[in-house]
Each structure stands twice: as C-alpha cells, then as structure tokens.
C-alpha cells in the first residue's frame, strides 16, 4: 500500500468524506463497475476502446466526452435480448446524436423522443419513424404535425388539451396515428426507495385515482384518427429495484382491466417507462437487464392472471442504463487548492477546465460521481478531493467527494465515469464556455461524432444591433 502508514482516516484532522466512500485499494486501478466495458489502465494511463486518453486528448483536447461504442452497443443489446418479447425504446433525451440513433437502430431498439429537436436528429439519422415514440407534456401543434407527417409509431398523450390538438392535427393531415395515454400511477420512485401515493403533484400524465386517465382513454377512443394502443407510465429515474414498478404496474393494469370491462376495449399494449439505475459510485448496485426483465414480466403476468385479462404487448424506455456508463468525461486539471475547514481538516479543491456546463447533475440533483487520475501512475497517498469546474458559481461542483492522489497537479488529466446520460444533453454555454466534443472510441480508433463548439458557434446567434 502506497498510503501513509497510519492511513488517511487516522491522520490528525483528516477529512472524512461520506460514510460510503473508501480510499482506493489501488489508486492506479479502475473500479470496473463504474467504467465502460473496454476501459482499463495501462501503467496508470486510462485507455478506452483501445485508445489511450493521453493520445485522444492530444488530438481532440479537453474537456471531452469519450463514448465507448462497444459498451453502448453491448448495453443496448443486453436490454433487447433480456426484454426479447418487449419493444425497447431508447430514451433519446439521455443522449442523442445521429451516430447514436444509428447504433440504436442497428441494435434493434426503437427510439423515444420528446421534442421536435430530438425528432429532427432521428430524422437526420434516417431512423425508421414507425419505431419512434413521441413524448412530452407540452408538444406544440407544429411538433405534433411534424411527428404525424413523419409517420411516428405513436404519440404518448399527456393532457386533454393535447388529445384535442392531436385530433385536429390528424384531421388536417388526413393520417391516423398510434396513441398511448400517459397515466400517473401514484408512485414516486427514489433511488433506493419508493413512495406510493394516491395523487402525484406533478406535471406529467393523467391521474388514475381522479378518473382523468379513464376519461382520457374515452376521449382518445372517440377521436377519429387516434388509434389507442394502451397505457403508459414512467415512475422516475435511477431506480434500483422493481418494487416501485410492481406497485405502478398493479395500478396501471387495474385501469387497463377497467377499460376492458367498462368500455369493452382490450388495449393491445402497455409501456412501463424507463428509469433503470446505474452505478455512479461504489454505493450503487444496479440489477442487470435479465433480472429486471424476469421480475417485471413476472409481476405483469401474475397481475394479469388475477385480473383475468390478456398480457398486453409490453415496452420499456431505458435511457441512462444504456448510455450512462458508456461515456466518461476527460478534463485537464488547472489548479489545485487546499482549503482549511472548521476543525482543522483540509479539503483539496481540484479545478478542471469544464464544470456545470458539461455536467449539471451534481449541482441540479446533488448527484454523486467518482473520478480517477487518467494520465499517469501515482503512488502518492490519497487525499479527499472535490472536483470543481471553472464557472463563476460556488455550486459548480463535478465530483463532490473522491480520493485523489496527493501529488495531483496542473496538467494532469482527470476522468469522470458515468457521464453518458444527461450530461451532454443537459449541457449549456454558461459563462460562454464551448460545449465539449463527443469522441467515439472503438477498436483502437477515435472519431468525433459531435464536434467541439467554436467561438463562431457561440456568436452565431448574437445578431447584434440591427439598426
Ligand atoms: C426520462 C424518461 C425515460 C428515461 O429515463 P432513464 O432514467 O434515462 O431510463 C423514459 N421514459 C420517459 C417517459 C422519461 O421521461
């Protein structure tokens, strides 16, 4: 052990991070569960897809999102194979570009989009529109028209306004469209627990308990051109077990059976949404797709038996669980600052050349991440560090707590795993930073699939005084 003989935790005034955080047993190794499948360290240097990040950075600069294509495809395939009888919709909002849309298609998945912009990416990628599902709580008439004209497989309606709007759109365009009705099953899923409630005080879906969901089904059935496929629910995100899905599925299936009994309509399909968790740190222990599939199918089949209805054709919408672990963000360390805290402990602030503009999740959701020194070996003792960005904002934190080598210095590369979902897709130009590129790696080669923004991109919309 290269660590100080007394150990980090025994040093006077040593800073103890969160209770789950342990110093690394080998700081020059990766914790495999946090990294994409091809990631490894070769003499301290991180290698992904057979490409050393030092070489990748020499070519593409920092910060950069490094996307492991084999990992993405393997996770997509794992969901498709485990949920073989389902339709698996990749939730494009987690991360979408034309390359990823093509990989999704090639791996046999369908695609879920929730704005005209995401639909545009799918169209640009040549995605089969019949396998696209259109979500969103406030789709505009223009977005609905575009989706219907493009021939999307189904629109998930989310309000009475939208049912009326979509009815007008299909009347105008003269085309029918598949429809699912999004319902709120009264389950709030949190990372490690779920809360079952009668009502959900949130913007999505139709309430089952208030009767809105049944009324929405009635209106869709009565609307010419709207072809009802079934009910849809999505209970949350970064969920680790199926207990929340179980409560939700029971409530949604009860409504499904009510529709059959009261309206005489056996809806052919049902969508159970996404939300499957991934490991951001060693505290997370996600289930694999095969286990999820077995449990979820068992729950639905059992409940259908009890209700005496046929099992509808099921679908799911994983986003994070497919793209999240596929990507790491590589930053360059700019400054390292030791800060004295109350009680004499010191925290090492490591500033990198990105931050909340390329990863807002820590600031927005209090999310946990980890990181590793990616450009060299170090045998220095681990110290508790906090990785922060370069924005003018004290809350600009990327990794709240992680052990980093005490000799971490400007110019070192630092890599943060698990940044594939909701990082690039939620990125911003705060402080007029340029969004990093997405560099795909595979079989020893790297290629840019989304290029780095330039100052010209940044200034392109600034039209100035027009007088
Ligand atoms: C966000 C979302 C998903 C994907 O969630 P993940 O946590 O990324 O799996 C799926 N369906 C709907 C309706 C969503 O809003």
Automatic annotation (TrEMBL):
Associated pathway: Amino-acid biosynthesis; L-lysine biosynthesis via DAP pathway; L-lysine from DL-2,6-diaminopimelate: step 1/1
Gene Ontology process terms (BP): lysine biosynthetic process via diaminopimelate
Domain Orn/DAP/Arg decarboxylase 2 C-terminal residue range list: 325-420
Domain of life of the native organism: Bacteria
Binding annotation for pyridoxal 5'-phosphate: 275, 317-320, 422
Entry binding sites for substrate: 320, 361, 365, 393, 422
GO MF annotations, alphabetized: diaminopimelate decarboxylase activity; pyridoxal phosphate binding
Signal peptide interval: none
EC number per UniProt: 4.1.1.20
InterPro entries tied to this protein: Ala_racemase/Decarboxylase_C, DAP_deCOOHase_LysA, De-COase2_C, De-COase2_CS, De-COase2_N, De-COase2_pyr-phos_BS, Orn/DAP/Arg_de-COase, PLP-binding_barrel
Active site: 392 (proton donor)
Residues the record lists as N6-(pyridoxal phosphate)lysine modifications: 93
Cofactor(s) needed for function: pyridoxal 5'-phosphate
Family label: Belongs to the Orn/Lys/Arg decarboxylase class-II family. LysA subfamily.
HAMAP family (alphabetical): LysA (MF_02120)
Protein name as catalogued: Diaminopimelate decarboxylase
Species: Nocardioides perillae
Taxonomic lineage: Bacteria, Bacillati, Actinomycetota, Actinomycetes, Propionibacteriales
């Amino acid at each position: 052990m290269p660590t100080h003989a007394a150990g980090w935790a025994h040093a006077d005034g040593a800073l103890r991070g969160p209770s789950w955080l342990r110093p690394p047993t080998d700081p020059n190794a990766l914790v495999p569960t946090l990294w994409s499948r091809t990631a490894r360290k070769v003499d301290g240097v991180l290698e992904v897809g057979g490409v050393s990040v030092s070489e990748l950075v020499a070519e593409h600069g920092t910060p950069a999102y490094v996307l492991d294509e084999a990992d993405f495809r393997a996770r997509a395939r794992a969901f498709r194979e485990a949920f073989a009888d389902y339709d698996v919709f990749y939730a494009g909002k987690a991360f979408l570009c034309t390359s990823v849309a093509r990989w999704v298609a090639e791996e046999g998945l369908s695609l879920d989009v929730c704005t005209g912009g995401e639909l545009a990416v799918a169209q640009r990628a040549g995605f089969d529109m019949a396998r696209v599902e259109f979500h969103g709580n406030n789709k505009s008439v223009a977005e609905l028209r575009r989706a219907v004209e493009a021939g999307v497989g189904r629109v998930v309606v989310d309000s009475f306004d939208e049912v009326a709007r979509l009815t007008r759109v299909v009347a105008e365009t003269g085309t029918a469209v598949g429809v699912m009705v999004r319902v709120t099953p009264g389950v709030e899923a949190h990372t490690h627990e779920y809360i079952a409630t009668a009502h959900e005080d949130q913007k999505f879906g139709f309430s089952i308990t208030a009767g809105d969901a049944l009324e929405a089904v009635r209106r869709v059935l009565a609307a010419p051109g709207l072809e009802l496929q079934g009910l849809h629910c999505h209970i949350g995100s970064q969920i680790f077990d199926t207990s929340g899905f179980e409560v939700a599925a029971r409530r949604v299936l009860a409504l499904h059976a009510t529709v059959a009994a009261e309206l005489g309509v056996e809806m052919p399909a049902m969508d159970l949404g996404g939300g499957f968790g991934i490991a951001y740190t060693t505290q997370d222990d996600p289930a694999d797709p095969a286990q999820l599939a077995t449990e979820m199918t068992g729950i639905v089949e059992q409940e259908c038996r009890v209700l005496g209805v046929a099992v509808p054709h099921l679908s799911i919408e994983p986003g994070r669980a497919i793209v999240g672990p596929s990507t790491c963000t590589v930053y360059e360390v700019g400054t390292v600052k030791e800060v004295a805290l109350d009680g004499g402990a010191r925290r090492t602030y490591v500033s990198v050349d990105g931050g909340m503009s390329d990863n807002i999740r820590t600031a927005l959701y209090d999310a946990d991440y980890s990181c590793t020194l990616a450009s060299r070996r170090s045998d220095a003792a681990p110290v508790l560090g906090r990785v922060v960005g370069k924005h003018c904002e004290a809350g600009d934190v990327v990794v709240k707590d992680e052990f980093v080598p005490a000799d971490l210095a400007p110019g070192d590369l630092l890599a943060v795993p698990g940044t594939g979902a909701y990082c690039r897709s939620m990125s911003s130009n705060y402080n007029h930073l340029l969004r990093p590129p997405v560099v795909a790696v595979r079989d020893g080669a790297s290629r840019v699939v989304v290029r780095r923004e330039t100052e010209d991109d940044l200034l392109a919309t600034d039209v100035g005084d027009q007088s």
